[in-house]
Write a structure and sequence with these properties.
Layout (H helix, E strand, L loop, with lengths): L1 H25 L5 H22 L9 H24 L4 H10 L3 H12 L2 H27 L5 H9 L2 H14 L6 H27 L8 H30 L4 H11 L6 H9 L3 H26 L2
Helix pairs in contact: 1-9, 1-13, 2-6, 2-8, 2-9, 3-4, 3-6, 3-10, 4-6, 4-10, 5-6, 5-9, 6-7, 6-11, 10-11, 10-13, 12-13
Length: about 300
């Protein structure tokens, strides 16, 4: 119990930042889109570049983003099929999004920074590439029910600046170029800014909710996918590696589990609004999932032994 309480207390500052984001969005009328643009186009590329440039890369790491993409696709398509049986309307598409797309960036990256060393954080950032590719391809198809063609999906992926930051970081890494101390000084500031703004984005997104729409059956299905099926797939992948492939270390297994237990992505609320997929229900589900994660994540970390 003392370990659980310690983990719980460590998470509270992150939730305080979510509260600040909610206050900024509701009272100060700070635009979530502006915060998102700062995080996506300025802070995250710099943070990712620094982590990848300093990463000691091993070929086995390639398995990590591939697993994340495959697992996201399995969960998304499976719960799309379940949703079509239960709802017979576009709630099925929203269900697939909420179960397959986790808040690995705004929420997960600050968590990893809290619990893991710098080298492991760099690997986590590389692993996030699998989720980014999923969102730009299969995720968009599910969200828009096929409204995006292949060309549009590829264009959306190519416009994502973090992809280029990662490529630049790998180039610096491969050429073994030493970045100056001045870069690392400001990189530390960028990393802290990303954590603060990233968590505030979650709160600012929730501040735009005009009304809460509770769907007990919908939330139960989302929780079964995001908090049960996703970790189950991660456990299966880890077991397969432990007993067959033996590619990854225990620390990397812990990273996989950490990515699998984050709540639904805050960006789902934006997608739902753009595509008229019951945005109030989407935002309410994200809120409940994020609050539930305050108990769920410490419990899982305690059980896993991170």
């Amino acid at each position: 119990m003392s370990v659980f309480l310690s983990l719980f207390v460590n998470l509270l500052p992150l939730y305080a930042l979510i509260g600040l984001g909610y206050f900024a969005g509701r009272v100060l009328k700070v635009d979530r889109q502006s915060l998102g643009s700062l995080a996506i186009y300025l802070f995250m590329p710099v943070v990712v570049f620094g982590f990848v440039a300093d990463l000691e890369f091993h070929p086995a790491y390639i398995a990590l983003p591939i697993f994340i993409f495959i697992a996201s696709t399995i969960i998304g398509l499976a719960f799309l099929a379940i949703g079509n049986r239960v709802y017979k309307d576009n709630q099925a598409n929203l269900l697939a999004m909420c179960t397959s797309m986790g808040n690995t960036g705004y929420f997960g990256l600050p968590l990893v920074l809290l619990f893991f060393d710098k080298d492991l954080v760099a690997i986590y950032v590389f692993m996030m590439l699998g989720g980014l590719v999923y969102e730009a391809t299969v995720g968009y198809y599910i969200a828009a029910r096929g409204a995006f063609n292949v060309r549009q999906s590829v264009i959306k992926l190519l416009k994502f600046p973090t992809l280029y930051a990662m490529m630049a970081g790998f180039s610096i890494n491969y050429m073994e170029i030493e970045l100056p101390d001045l870069f690392w000084t400001y990189w530390t500031h960028f990393k802290g800014a990303y954590v603060i703004i990233g968590m505030m984005i979650v709160g600012a997104a929730l501040a735009n909710i005009d009304r809460l729409v509770f769907g007990p059956r919908f939330i139960a299905l989302v929780f079964s996918g995001k908090f049960i099926a996703w970790p189950a797939l991660a456990f299966a992948f880890i077991a397969l590696d432990q007993y067959l492939f033996k590619w990854l270390t225990t620390d990397l297994h812990h990273l996989v589990m950490m990515m699998s237990i984050v709540p639904p992505a805050a960006n789902i609320a934006t997608f739902a609004t753009q595509m008229n997929l019951e945005p109030e229900k989407a935002a309410t589900t994200i809120l409940i999932g994020t609050l539930f994660a305050l108990i769920y994540i410490p419990a899982m970390i305690w059980l896993i032994g991170i």
